[in-house]
Specification:
Strand content: 15-25%
Number of domains: 1
CATH superfamily: Aldolase class I
Order of helices and strands: HEEHHEHHEHEHEHHEHEHEEH
Strand order of the largest sheet: 1-2-3-4-5-6-7-8-10-9
Oligomer: single chain
CATH architecture: Alpha-Beta Barrel
Largest sheet: 10 strands, mixed
Shape: globular
Distance between the termini: 42 Å
Length: 340
């Protein structure tokens, strides 16, 4: 077992990560904190009805097989840590343990916000925050490294917690093995073509582009709500809308999120080659999304200016069904899924 170096763990804890067991973590999201303060809510609230103040941001696997230049995560080798992220665990924690302790850590985090609950709205939200209804498995690393993802999803659903699983597209075989599906499955769409992809993702495994296309092809047949999420960086991957459109047609997701890069966290590392000017503004994102829409036929559905993101829907049915019915999560997940 190649355990995470203590110095790396301490550095991440200083950044706000709360570790759960050997390989999982949670961290409060900016919009969860905003929700508890009565401020601007997440784009997932606008797009899908997710209550930001009841959302856990977590991961069951801290390690990753990519080193995407635009990612906010701390990439170990950039800080001199010799840690093999691809072989980091000899025995994985049980799904029930991970879920119980993610909820426990989330409650520990939000407990500090009771002091700002100075009106009826904030008090109500603080009380509700102690009963999470949603988890975004997207915090850091690659969640699909965790080999018991189906069981983990089932544990969340048993507790009435909806699941948004974000995958980087390098493990199509893991997608095929899922026998319990998340409420919503994301794949990150990092680039429009092989040359740009290899420059952006800085893969640690071979044949990554081919595996990525395989994951997109698999997504097309998965019977749950599906999303491709684009993170656009000026001067890096914000070009070739025709290439993006071809990949969208390959996957045929219910939704495409066209989102602007944020110059935060690890993305500010000098060796990544990015800068503040790499962030497109909302008007630029909107125009790029309109171009994608004109090529693919996807419908411009909603936008969230604070996050600089535009939502495209595959068809009218997807657009109508985009708000999740929380009352059905954990009872029969198939009832809240858009038809394929």
């Amino acid at each position: 077992m190649t355990e995470m170096p203590n110095e790396l763990k301490a550095k991440m804890e200083k950044q706000g990560y709360h570790f759960v067991g050997k390989h999982s973590a949670v961290k409060i999201c900016e919009y969860t904190a905003n929700g508890l303060r009565g401020k601007t809510l997440c784009y997932k609230y606008t797009f899908y009805g997710i209550r930001s103040w009841q959302c856990i941001q977590g991961t069951p696997a801290i390690g990753c097989d990519l080193g995407c230049s635009f990612c906010w995560r701390l990439i170990p080798e950039e800080h001199g840590f010799r840690w093999n992220e691809l072989n980091a665990v000899d025995k994985w924690d049980e799904p029930e343990f991970i879920v119980e302790n993610m909820i426990k850590e989330q409650r520990r985090i939000v407990s500090g916000y009771k002091s700002v609950a100075d009106n009826d709205l904030k008090r109500k939200r603080w009380e509700e925050a102690n009963m999470p209804r949603h988890v975004a498995l997207s915090l850091t690393g690659e969640p699909m490294f965790y080999p018991r993802m189906s069981a983990l999803i089932r544990e969340f659903h048993k507790r009435g917690i909806s699941t948004f699983l974000v995958h980087n597209g390098t493990l199509p075989e893991a997608l095929e093995r899922l026998d319990t599906l998340p409420t919503q499955l994301y794949i990150s769409l990092q680039a429009p073509d092989k040359e740009t992809y290899e420059k952006v993702v800085r893969s640690k495994i071979p044949n990554c582009w081919e595996r990525f296309r395989g994951a997109l092809s698999t997504m097309k047949s998965i019977k749950t709500r599906t999303v491709l999420r684009m993170t656009l960086v000026k001067g890096l991957n914000m070009h070739n809308p025709e290439g993006y459109s071809e990949l969208i047609r390959l996957a045929m997701p219910n939704y495409v999120e066209v989102k602007g890069f944020s110059f935060v966290g690890g993305a500010r590392e000098q060796q990544r080659g990015l800068e503040l000017q790499s962030m497109p503004n909302h008007d630029e994102i909107r125009e790029f999304a309109k171009t994608i829409s004109s090529i693919t036929g996807y419908i411009v559905t909603a936008e969230h200016m604070p996050s600089r993101v535009i939502l495209l829907s595959r068809d009218e049915e997807s657009r109508r069904n985009r708000i999740i019915d929380f009352d059905k999560i954990g009872i029969d997940n198939t009832k809240v899924l858009a038809k394929q």
